[in-house]
Amino acid sequence: NEDQFKKVISHAKEYGYVFQSSEIYDGLSAVYDYAQNGAELKKNIRDYWWKAMVQMHDNIVGIDAAIFMHPTTWKASGHVDAFSDPLIDNKDSKKRYRADVLVEDYCLKIEAKIEKEVKKAEKRFGESFNKEEFISTNGRVVGYQEKIDTILKRLGQSLEKEDLADVKALIEELEIACPVAGSRNWTDVKQFNLMFGTKLGASAETAMDLYLRPETAQGIFVNFLNVQKTGRLKIPFGIAQTGKAFRNEIVARQFIFRMREFEQMEMQFFIKPGTQKKWFEHWKETRMKWHLSLGMGEENYRFHDHEKLAHYADAATDIEFKFPFGFKELEGIHSRTDFDLKQHEEFSGKKLQYFDHEDNESYTPYVLETSIGLDRMFLAVFSNALVEEELEDGKTRTVLKLPAVLAPVKAAIFPLLAKDGLPEVAKKIVEDLKWDFNVAYEEKDTVGRRYRRQDANGTPFCITVDHDTLEDNTVTIRHRDTMDQKRVKIEDLKEIIKAEVDV
Ligand code: ATP
Asked: What is its main location (predicted)?
């Protein structure tokens, strides 16, 4: 809900996770900076992905292609002609909308209205109330439901040019169904290309028009044969990469969910034509397992299979996550056929074929793609972790229950008091542990306060050095989630922390 989302945004700022870009100049819309803790969390998510995708797979290698690419790349990939979103302006409010997002918003409002009607009826009819029956017999509600269904079906995943007039009509129709809507004075729907352009070269005459890449995938396709040959890779094999991508999003909302500069983690898996169904299922399952391994709750994920497919795909699904504003796409899994390699063959004039020694034949491989936004994953992890807990004494505590493997700081080490030689012992522990983990030292405030601060920061362990430590080399280790405290030997700390934070 909205309140929870506001808390997420302000917590991310207060604890040094995410800042608005160029804040002193009032910020830049839909561009964000990762602060001291955010950079660590982001790096840990990236590493967790890289480890699972590259290190753990004998047949997947990683590359790091440049952001700038030859401009023909984007003609071949279809981005110059077709990488656009439908845009609509409201003539009265002068506000600009992405038409498909606007429709979705209306649908949500209408759905909320249906829910309300159902609740009212529930109250009125008590236990005898049958929701399904009510929805199917109550004309008013059914009217809305049917509209939503038709509209969502027609919108599908990507809009064709001929759909644009229809979309405008749909928006106007929805406004009638949705009493919360404002005016009915819209411009026509236009397609707006999302690529950022720039120039390479010093003089105006010779400068070359370039684009900032809107996805990392094309850097993999154009390197496909070089990597395959130098790596002596046999199909099936994958190429993975993480890196920045840029999109001039029409309306960027929802914090780091939709940014103009963001990072992707993509993997292209090259397979024999005809095996794509099997591999599509394989990667759906493998990617979902990766998500579930973080322990963020099975109920927070679902697949959304695409009915209407992009021109390059023969199957596609999204892994959706329950963000504070509802279930939304977190990752896409696409069966891209040989579309991309064939296009690059055509535009470059170079063969991009694979010779299969076993079958003694050459072919253009098919591709299965997994594509996840690093920033979106950050938002999923961060928003899911932020909880307010009622304590036994009636107080509440704010805890950031980040998966330990992703937490920016793994342990904070405190001297109980900033005297009597306790800081020296605590600092010695920091010196020893920092070879293996990112750790922090704190001596200000009461230990209780320091615990709360580390809880809110997501630190899985707090370690306190007290006067007994000087006698017996033991410390108190406190667990963030259970708040359990144990007395352990200093020499065992590394293993205890490792057991929790290593994968
Ligand atoms: P959406 O429908 O939300 O615009 P998309 O379907 O265009 O996303 P893809 O092109 O499939 O997204 O990109 C793959 C992944 O990259 C998405 O699942 C998402 O996690 C991430 N992503 C895409 N656009 C953005 C953005 N503007 N900001 C942050 N992450 C993004």
From this structure: cytoplasm
Do 401 and 465 meet the contact criterion of CB atoms below 8 Å apart?
A: no
Residue by residue, what is the 3-state secondary structure of 367-384? Answer: EEEEEEEHHHHHHHHHHH
d(CA 61, CA 63): 7
CA-based nearest residue to 407, from 431, 437, 387: 437
Q: How far is the CA of 426 from the centre of ligand 1 (A)?
A: 45
Binding residues for substrate: 98, 215, 262-266, 369-373
Taking residues 347-369, report their average pLDDT: 95
Q: How far is the C-alpha of 451 from the C-alpha of 414, rounded, in Å? A: 10
Proportion of the chain above pLDDT 90, given as a percent: 71
CA distances from 418 to 274, 425, 468 (A): 68, 11, 15
Looking at this predicted complex, what is its ipTM?
0.97
pLDDT given for residue 126 in this prediction: 79
Residue 230 CA: distances (Å) to CA of 55, 146, 223, 234, 267:
18, 56, 11, 11, 18
Rounded Cα–Cα distance for residues 323 and 5 (Å): 9
Lowest mean pLDDT segment, chosen from 311-315, 394-398, 439-443: 311-315
pLDDT tier, 115 (very low <50, low <70, confident <90, very high otherwise): confident
Q: Determine which residue's CA is closest to atom 11 belonging to ligand 1.
A: 332
Q: Whose CA is nearest to atom 13 of ligand 1?
A: 371
The three-class DSSP label of residue 66 is coil
Kindly report the protein residue whose alpha carbon is nearest to atom 1 of ligand 1.
329
Q: Which domains does the chain have, with CATH numbers?
A: 42-68+209-383 (3.30.930.10), 85-193 (no CATH), 394-501 (3.40.50.800)
The pLDDT tens digits for 434-478 are: 999 999 999 999 999 999 999 999 999 999 999 999 999 999 999
- For residues 59 and 57, what is the distance between their CA atoms, to the nearest angstrom? 5
pTM for this predicted structure: 0.90
pLDDT at 110: 77
∠ CA 261-67-338, nearest 5°, is: 105
